[in-house]
Amino acid sequence: MYNQAYAPDYPAEDRTTLERQLAEINAQIAETIQAAEKREDVADWLRLATLAVAAAFEKYQKGDQDAYKEIEAAIRYIRNASSDAPHKRTFVTMPDGTTKRVG
Fold this sequence. Notes:
- This protein has about 100 residues and is mainly α.
- The chain has helices at about 1-5, 20-35, 40-60, 65-80, and strands at about 90-95, 100.
- Helix 2 packs antiparallel against helix 3.
């Protein structure tokens, strides 16, 4: 949420950069993924969070104002991981390559 509020223009007194924030977030998520290794569903949510964070910081570096949407997605993924929310399946791919909606 800190990055959502301040990135890419962090307060000078915080002495941080996009690169430093990205590294810190990735380190925290990686540590949590390792701890959750036995829970594949939790690790999957955290991997999705990592991808969303990477996309957000790419957008921040490009000056894209929609970067906050990726941060919001990462936050949702982390909340899903911490609440043990299962992945919601909305379609199934059949052996012939066609898809079928479920749920």
